[in-house]
Specification:
six-stranded antiparallel β-barrel, Thrombin, subunit H, binds adenosine-5'-diphosphate, 3 domains, alpha/beta, Rossmann fold, eleven-stranded mixed beta sheet, elongated, binds magnesium ion
């Protein structure tokens, strides 16, 4: 039919705008048979009789038939009850049209004219490329779900307003990051540091990886970890803590890194002990105090075992990680071998280094990709998580001025399985895949704003994401997907 009419370049007419349209809302009554062509999330163009063309997405369709209304008894209902099929002459189909904007010379603009009822609505075919209306950006991500050739443009200037990728386990977050977001960031000129929590999502696929235990963690982070491990060496949080202070000084004043674990541990212990001995004032009271401190030190070192010390014997410094990322374009920190607290300690160390650089007004052009985000910044952070959460928030604020883009992946949006709310507020671009039922409430908020039904979000296929926020040239979310290159996967 399209070829007959010579409409290769044109979208096909699918219906007309119904009564009650405004400049920002409309719905379409489909021509007969078009209900088998137009789908949820189909892209259409409204030829507004009041002027201009308006790009829109079909969402939340409905089939209507007066004859079979179920609010009261009617002849149609009576007919159906007898097992016969009532007439379908009064049947028609409508779709809500979520307005993207008016098509202008340089991309999309806010639509200001009221959309005239009975304006013709046309649907794009595979021959078209509606993405061209979204602007001329040469930076693209994935493709519009319906057609692999429709690459979705993104706004580069908002990359360092940070990115969140949400979806249940198995929804395709890590794949999206690996196949689309990371290559996009590379094309935009960012060097990339990936924190691979499980060591299985990125490390096997990139050449340049650094194992967790080869990274040097700064002394203040080591002491933070030891404090956590030993419950503050037996002191209450805010108390003056001479034992912790002595261990910290011991870490700073001995050459323990690069030594075998047993030797390193012994060095730290002996040094801390001697510091505590020297610190004690003279007299029996002083000796008593010193003995008390040394007891606490001994008790703590039952927990600070060789294995614990071994975690921190690495010598690669954060600046070397950054240099590697800059030289090779990308580096993956493989965190598979390590306890949670150690992972957080390493992350803290790297992140703090980046923060210091930015405080010295250095521009970074770096993206920090954080998979399994709630491990670092959960809903209610505790212990070291509190520090990493605060640090991420600070990085976000500084990053906007100094070219650091934070990319966080999380299986939940809000609540218990979700990302810390203060962190999430900083992620101005979001990719939302299939969500967890616990996030139903979040989904309802999206539904209220954009007609995307919560049911749709709960059942999205893997590798499908709604793209919304600053980097999206369209004010309404677009459903995107991406193709995985089988060879690159192997
Ligand atoms: N675009 C895609 N096309 C086809 N399959 C995909 C796509 N994205 C992801 N998948 C499949 O989904 C699975 C889970 O993806 P993954 O990124 O590991 O999920 P998550 O990180 O959300 O747990 C992958 O193993 C892959 O088989
Ligand atoms: Mg994953």
């Amino acid at each position: 039919m399209i070829a007959e009419k010579g409409w290769f370049e044109l979208p096909i007419p699918v219906g007309v705008v119904s009564s009650g349209a405004s400049e920002s809302r409309a719905s379409v009554i489909l021509y007969d048979g078009m209900e088998k062509v137009v789908k949820n999330e189909s892209l259409v163009i409204i030829r507004n009789r009041n002027g201009g063309d308006v790009l829109a997405v079909c969402r939340g369709g409905k089939g209507l038939n007066e004859n079979v209304k179920t609010s009261s008894f009617s002849p149609g209902v009576a007919y159906a009850k007898t097992g016969k099929v009532p007439s379908s002459v009064k049947e028609f189909y409508i779709f809500n049209l979520e307005i993207i904007g008016a098509v202008g010379a340089d991309g999309i603009q806010q639509n200001k004219f009221i959309i005239a009822p009975t304006s013709i609505v046309e649907m794009f075919t595979h021959e078209d490329d509606p993405m061209k209306y979204l602007g001329k950006s040469d930076l693209k991500i994935g493709h519009y779900w319906a057609e692999p050739r429709w690459k979705v443009p993104v706004l580069k200037q908002y990359i360092n307003y940070h990115i969140g990728i949400f979806g249940v386990t198995g929804s395709g977050k890590s794949y999206l990051a690996r196949y689309e977001v990371i290559p996009l960031l590379r094309r935009a000129g960012y060097s990339i540091i990936v924190m691979d929590w499980k060591g299985s999502d990125y490390a096997p696929y990139f050449d340049n990886t650094i194992p967790l235990d080869s990274i040097k963690v700064d002394n203040s982070t080591v002491i933070r970890y030891f404090n956590h491990l030993t419950k503050n060496f037996g002191y209450l949080g805010r108390e003056d803590n001479p034992v912790s202070a002595a261990v910290e000084r011991a870490l700073r004043t001995t050459e323990w890194r690069g030594k075998p674990p047993q030797e390193a541990r012994e060095l730290i212990y002996m040094q801390a002990k001697s510091i505590l001995q020297q610190q004690a004032s003279t007299g029996s009271k002083g000796r008593e105090m010193s003995l008390f401190w040394q007891n606490r030190l001994d008790a703590a070192f039952e927990l600070i075992t060789e294995e614990e010390v071994e975690r921190f014997l690495g010598t690669i410094e954060p600046w070397q990680i950054l240099t590697q990322a800059k030289d090779k374009g990308l580096v993956v920190v493989d965190m598979s071998k390590g306890e949670k607290e150690q992972k957080l300690a390493v992350f803290y160390s790297i992140a703090r280094y980046l923060k210091r650089l930015m405080e010295r007004k250095q521009r970074l052009d770096v993206a920090l990709v954080i998979d399994e985000g709630p491990q670092y910044a959960p809903w209610q952070p505790r212990g070291l998580e509190r520090d990493t959460t605060d640090l991420i928030i600070e990085l976000c604020a500084l990053g906007r001025s100094y070219g650091l883009s934070i990319v966080i992946l999380s299986q939940g949006m809000a609540g218990e399985i979700g990302l810390n709310a203060a962190v999430r507020r900083n992620l101005n671009t979001q990719f939302i895949g299939r969500i967890h039922p616990l996030d139903f409430e979040e989904a309802q908020k999206l539904a209220a704003s954009y007609y995307i039904s919560p049911e749709t979000l709960l059942t999205l296929p893997e590798g499908h994401f709604y793209f919304l926020g600053r980097m999206n040239p369209s004010p309404t979310p677009l459903l995107i997907s991406f193709q995985i290159d089988k060879q690159a996967r192997e």
